[in-house]
């Protein structure tokens, strides 16, 4: 099975530098263009299923990418970005003043400290692992996953049998596509952050 990884298009929160795990934030004009361009680049990929997070920004990206294809995205909560709790839609320059102790603790030990009233990395990692555990049950050839940078970076590291902290080695760009070839035995990263038009002969 090939997993086609797509991060949602640019949002206003991205532009403003805000933490936006579960908060609704619309795609910008650039983000809409990124999704539409991906639809052109991946036009010849024979997707047989699509999964998105519960967040509108991934669903909008998927709709724009798919265009008139007769595919209805499956909404999968496990693909949601990490929830930042009280830090949602806040800028780090405010958090270092208004929630200094908790924010400093998280910055220095992000795998164990938890955003104020938010989701810790261990819980986040557990649900991404739970998604991976179900992948062998999926009988698809080309599965499109439209999700978030945190989810897709962690997913990549875990599929490659790397520690969760290795997620930072796999930045997933907006407006690009990546491919992981998955089998129950092992996974292979075939493409990372391509902006090329996919052709069937590319494999």
How would you describe this structure to a colleague?
By secondary structure, the chain is of the alpha/beta class. The model has no long low-confidence stretch (mean pLDDT 96). The longest helix has 14 residues, at 121-134. Helix 2 (29-41) packs across helix 3, helix 4 (92-98) crosses helix 5 (100-108) and helix 6 crosses helix 7 (149-159). It is built from seven helices and six strands, in the order E-H-H-E-H-E-H-H-H-E-H-E-E. A six-stranded mixed β-sheet has the order 3-2-4-1-5-6. The chain has helices at 12-16, 29-41, 56-66, 92-98, 100-108, 121-134, 149-159, and strands at residues 2-7, 49-52, 74-75, 142-147, 177-182, 187-194.
Q: Main sheet: which strands, in order across?
A: 3-2-4-1-5-6
Mean pLDDT: 96
Largest sheet: 6 strands, mixed
Number of helices: 7
**Oligomer state of the chains in this structure:** single chain
SS elements, strand count: 6
| Distance between the ends | 12 Å
How much is the radius of gyration in Å? 17 Å
What's the order of the H and E elements? EHHEHEHHHEHEE
Question: Structural class from helices and strands?
Answer: alpha/beta
Low-confidence stretches: none
Proportion of residues in helical segments = 25-40%
β-strand percent reads 15-25%
Tertiary shape: globular
Short account of what is shown:
By secondary structure, the chain is α/β, with parallel strands linked by helices. 34% of the residues lie in helices and 16% in strands. The protein has helices at 12-16, 29-41, 56-66, 92-98, 100-108, 121-134, 149-159, and strands at residues 2-7, 49-52, 74-75, 142-147, 177-182, 187-194.
